Amino acid sequence: METMTKNVSVEKSKTSKISEVDFNNLSFGSVYTDHMLVCDFVNGAWQTPKVVPYQPITLEPSAKIFHYGQSIFEGMKAYKDENGDAWLFRPLENFKRLNKSAKRLAIPELPEAYFMEGLTTLLQVEKDWIPQNPGSSLYVRPFILASGTGFHASPADEYKFIIACAPSGAYFSGKVKVLIEENYSRAANGGVGYAKAGGNYAGQFYPTQLAIEKGYNQVIWTDDNTHEYIEEAGAMNIFVRINDTLITGPTSDRILDGITRKSILEIAEDQGIATEVRKITVSEVVEAAKNGSLKEMFGAGTAAVVSPIAGFGYQGTDYELPELDNSYATQLKTYITDIQYNRTEDKFGWRYPVE
Amino acid sequence: METMTKNVSVEKSKTSKISEVDFNNLSFGSVYTDHMLVCDFVNGAWQTPKVVPYQPITLEPSAKIFHYGQSIFEGMKAYKDENGDAWLFRPLENFKRLNKSAKRLAIPELPEAYFMEGLTTLLQVEKDWIPQNPGSSLYVRPFILASGTGFHASPADEYKFIIACAPSGAYFSGKVKVLIEENYSRAANGGVGYAKAGGNYAGQFYPTQLAIEKGYNQVIWTDDNTHEYIEEAGAMNIFVRINDTLITGPTSDRILDGITRKSILEIAEDQGIATEVRKITVSEVVEAAKNGSLKEMFGAGTAAVVSPIAGFGYQGTDYELPELDNSYATQLKTYITDIQYNRTEDKFGWRYPVE
Hints:
The structure is a homodimer of 355-residue chains.
Chain A: E1 2-5, E2 8-11, E3 35-42, E4 45-46, E5 50-53, E6 57-59, H1 64-68, E7 71-73, E8 76-80, E9 86-89, H2 91-104, H3 112-125, E10 137-146, E11 159-168, E12 176-180, H4 198-213, E13 218-220, E14 237-242, E15 245-248, H5 259-270, E16 274-277, H6 282-291, E17 294-301, E18 305-314, E19 317-320, H7 328-340, E20 351-353
Parallel strand pairs in A: 2-5, 12-13, 12-18, 15-16
Antiparallel strand pairs in A: 1-2, 3-4, 3-5, 3-11, 7-10, 8-9, 8-10, 9-20, 10-11, 14-15, 14-17, 17-18, 18-19
Helix pairs in contact in A: 5-7
Cofactor (chains A, B): pyridoxal 5'-phosphate
EC number (chains A, B): 2.6.1.42
Family (chains A, B): Belongs to the class-IV pyridoxal-phosphate-dependent aminotransferase family.
C-alpha cells in the first residue's frame, strides 16, 4: 500500500517486529523500527522522500562513503506523554545543523520540507514504537551518506538521506567517570569538529578505548595545540559548576553547537543560575577540585541528556566530585525532560508535535 | 567454479566487462574489474578471504560506517612490463600502514597473509586488467569498513576488508596549481592525520572546492595552529626544491607517511641530490619564490606519482614556478616509474612480482 502525505510517500511494512521488543529493557540504539525514510540525491537534486520498510542498503564497493568518510548525521529523540501524544524537541535546530554539517562536508544541502515532512511522516507511521516508559524515548537518527562512486578523492555525485529510529533507554547507566585527555585530540582549528561528521567519531574510538582500559567511561577532549582548554566529550558538551556558577566552553570550529547545551544554558539563566560561556582551563578545574569549589561537572547531549560526572582523571591523579542533594544537573535534567515529555509548560516553545 | 590458493578461495565471474573498457582513454578510478577480494571480521576474527565477482555491498542502515566514519584504506598500483609480467611496488609498506591506520581507528588489525595472499590472488585473477599503456596502471584499493551495527558511538564488532581494482590513467592531467591554505585545516595534533582514515578526506572536499573555484587544483595544507608550516596536499606529500636542495616536511601524527615520499627521498639521496627532511615554513617558500631560489615544487603519492606544481597562491598573490629543462621532478618520476614498470634494475628491492 502506498499513500502520499504532501511530499512524502509511504510504503507500509507487511509485518511488524514490535512484539519482539522488550520495552522495559531497552539498550541504546540497538533495535530498529519497522520503517525508515529514504531520500536520494541523484541528477543534481534531492528526490521525493519515501517511507519504506526498514531494509538493508546496497551500495557499490566504490561508493565514496566507504573510502572518504563523506557522511554526516543528527541525533534526535521522540517522546510520548501520558496521553499518548508524541513530541519532538527543537527539530528545526537539528535540520539547520544537518545543513551546516552538509556544507562543510561538501554534501548538497537538504530542503527543509523534505527533512521536516519526512521526519514527521515517519514518526506518525512509527508512533507505536515511541516508548512511554520513564527514561525511554525513540532515538531518531537522520543521516546522509555519499553513495556516488569513484576512487578519486572528491565529493560524490549521489547521496542518500535516511532517517532510522531505535527505541532506546539511557545512553550511560549511572554516573560517568571521565579522563581529561593530554595526548590525543578530537578536532583541528579550521577542521570539521563543529560538524556532525562521521569521521569525528571514529577518531575518538581508540583514545576512548585506552581511557576505558584505565577505568574511565569517556574522554574529555582538550584543544589539540596546548591541551590546556576543556572542549567537549565527543558525544556530549561539558558543563562545569564552580561554586554556584555554571560554565561551559564557547562553541567554535572545533566544538559541536549542541542543542541540549544551548537549551541548558537558556533554562539555567531562566532559573536564576549564574552562567558563563567562556574558555575553561584544565588547571582551573583541577584547582577548583582541590580547593572544593568544584561542585559539579556534567555532560549534555541529545543521547546522554544531562549526564552527571562522578569524577575525572588528569595526569595520573583521580579527582572525585561531591554528591550534592540539589545538583544543577538534577534540576536541569528534570526541567528539560519535563518539557520533552510534556509534563510542564513549554515556555520556550521547544516542543514540536508529531502530527 | 571455486578454487583455493592457500588461504584464499576464488569464485570466478561468469562474464567479463573487459571488452567494454577503452584502455587508451582511462580516467582515474572510475571503471572496476570483474572481481574483488572480500574478507569479513565476525565473531572476533578475520575469516578466510575470498575472491568473488565484483558486486554491490549490502549493509544494515545502522552499520557504523554510515554514522561514525570508521573506515580506512590504502592505495597501490599494479604495473605490467613489456613482457606482460605484473608487478607491485612495496606492497608490504601498504600492509603495515593499513594496520597502523587500523589501530588508530580501533579496527582489528589484519593478518599479513590475508592481505598479501588476498592481494596477489586477486591480481592473478585480474591480470588481463593491468594496462600496458604508458602512464596507465591498475589502481588497487584495499579498504576496511565497519559493517557492525548500532547507534552507540563505539567501535563496531564486525568489519569488511575489501580489495577492488580500477584500471586507471593519470590522477592529474598536466601541471598542478595549488593554494596554500590559511584558514581550513586537514589534521589535528594527536588526531588521525597520519592514518588513511576516510574522514580525513571528506573534510578536505569543501576547502578544496573553494580553491578550485579560485582556479587552483589542490590545497596545500598547513598546520592547524599557526598555518605557518607546509604539511601535505591531502592526496600527496609535498617536496620543495630551493636552489639544489630537495626539502620535504617530517612525518608526524598530522602527516601521512607516504610510500612514494620515502621512496623519492631514498632515490634522491642515491642520485646525489641534497635532501633535507625538516619543517618548511610558508614564508621561506614565498621568500624563495620572490628571490628566484625556489626552483621546483612537486607532490608525491601513489595515485599522483610525482606531480609537478606550476605555481601556488598565498594571501591573494600567485607565484609562478620556473620551467626547468632538467627538473628533479622529471628525473625522480622517470626513475621511480622505471622501477615500477620493470624498465630498470631494482637496486632497492622494491618491486614485488604478482605470481
